[in-house]
Structure formats: C-alpha cells, structure tokens
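## retry 2 of 3
previous attempt timed out at serialization; input unchanged, resubmitting
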Amino acid sequence: MSWEFTEDFTTTEPVSTGQPPSVSGPYHVKIGSTELKTNDNGNQRVRWTNRVLDGEFAGCDIYDGISVPSESHKDGGAFARSLWVNLLVNLGHPKKKVQKKLKIAPKYLEGKTGYIQFITKEDAGGDYADVKWISKAQYDQLSKPQAEPKGVTLESTPDFDDDDDDDDDDPLDALDI
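## retry succeeded, writing output
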C-alpha cells in the first residue's frame, strides 16, 4: 500500500542528537529557546542550547548559560556583565547599543546565530564543558588547518651509532676516565 502527504517544512529544523560534540573546537551555532533558572545559591542564570549548524558535528547541542549579574556575586556582577556584553556583541548587536543600561529579553538571543569556542569537559579538566563566544574572524582563524611545526623531527636527526668503537680519531680517547 502506498502513501503520501503534503506538509510545509520550510522552518523545521532536523532533530538534535541531544549530545555535544566529542571534540573541542570552534563551532557555528544557532541559539534555541532560553529559560531563566535559579541555582542552589539563589542566583539566577539564563540557560539555552546552541545547535551546531554545519560540519561533522551538525545537529549536536551545546548547553550554555550566563548568570544574571547581581550585587550578591563576589565581584558585584562585573564578570557576568562582561560575559553578556561579549555574547551580545558576538551575536551581531552593535557594541555601542549593548554598552548601556539594557533590558535583556529572549528576543536578543533566540534564533540568533554566532560562533563559539567549545571545550569539552575532558579538555576543560572538570565536570563541565566550557563555551566562549567568539567573533567570525576568530572563528575563521581557529578553523584554519594547523600547519605542521617546522624544525627538528625524528626523521631529520642523524643516526648515531654508539657501537662503532673503531674510530681512532676520537679526541675523548685521550681522557683517563
């Protein structure tokens, strides 16, 4: 029995793997829906999922979030404010419009695309992965294939034969050791 149906898929994204990439590196991502959560310390944090858009890990999800700046933070919220400015600027919001008193809402993030440097929890050496928002130029630089280091390699070092004792011209033979 055959079947068919008609549906408009123009705005439908593929199903996510639900997993982050297994390799640290730069990724082009799109921010999904956001949510405001309160952590165990009573501080608020905006959380979201970054969907990798292309490459080998397209469809992978990278979980992200930034604390809402608060005077209760050790630094009075300065570090969280700097993370928010970095995120918004790297999402394409003009720096001069971001560096002022600003009411942050989901519309500033949801559906926006940008670039991140993702560090797996194994590479970060802890319990959590790390996400740093970067510019397109930084992404392009980090995405370039790394050149092979120039210099001495095992193949370029001479082969020293220590078993050759018939060298009569060895100046060290005169030493009484």
